[in-house]
Amino acid sequence: MPQVDRHKERTVNIEFGAMEDFSILPYPERYTLIFITTGSIHGILNERPISISAPGVLCLAEGDHVQVVERRNVSAQSFRFHPDFLNTVTLTETKDYFPAAPSIQTGLSLFQRDHLYSGVPRVTEKAYPLLFEWFFVLGTEVHAQSDALWVCRIKKYLIQILGLLEELNQNSEHSPVDKVLDYIHMNYPRKISLNDLTNCAHLNRVSLNKWFQERCGNTAFGYLLTHRLKVASDLLTHTDMSLNEIARSTGFEYDTYFIKQFTAKKGMSPTTYRVTSRKFSSAQ
């Protein structure tokens, strides 16, 4: 629920969750910062596997598609705010807290999905104590509303949090798994060898598959096959392309091999899947 400012006659479109349960994600009409303080989560963000261990942060916009598949002893807090929340900052409100007028663009790249990694910024050991302190202040101010400037202080700490996360994100080095995921997502329609993937990651086969198992629950080649079949499933449902055309479009050299792999993984032939999925879609 939005906050009712008891010092001024206004509604403030923010919420703080001391115990985020991941049951309603993303929150409607909100940017959401989820600060994971213990444990870990594994899931899918916009069709991309994510794995976040404490200390970690998940940044969500309203239009994101997120599914938390597994939680391991996780504790997390969340702060949600309407995108216009920072636009109401004025110099008179913030002169005691900001050395200069804050930029309302600070941190917004974390919620823009033109960057593949923006939803899960890096959190370093040095950054963690600051983030923990600032999140604590956010929660305290939301619930206490200690004086007429409580909203100002929240904006101050929110901008500090977003600025720090944005800087960490822009200067982060992405893991070998991320590099291989990028390679797969961009090149799955063509022939890909195991050497292509190991060269991309600069790892040997054993190390690459170990990292992939930890992150995605599958080997690198197993993930490649799963991704190809996912795209093929969408093409079967939403287009009239022939099986041969779909096979070629998703990196299978022969339609017979495509049919064999699809049937083994999906439990039905591509033709049966096409008929069934279209009946299900039309019934919705």
TrEMBL record:
Pfam families: HTH_18 (PF12833)
Name assigned to this protein: Helix-turn-helix domain-containing protein
Organism: Paenibacillus planticolens
Highest rank taxon of the organism: Bacteria
UniProt keyword list: DNA-binding, Transcription, Transcription regulation
InterPro entries: Homeodomain-like_sf, HTH_AraC, HTH_AraC-typ_CS
Annotated ranges, domain HTH araC/xylS-type: 178-276
PANTHER family: ARAC-FAMILY TRANSCRIPTIONAL REGULATOR, HTH-TYPE TRANSCRIPTIONAL REGULATOR EXSA
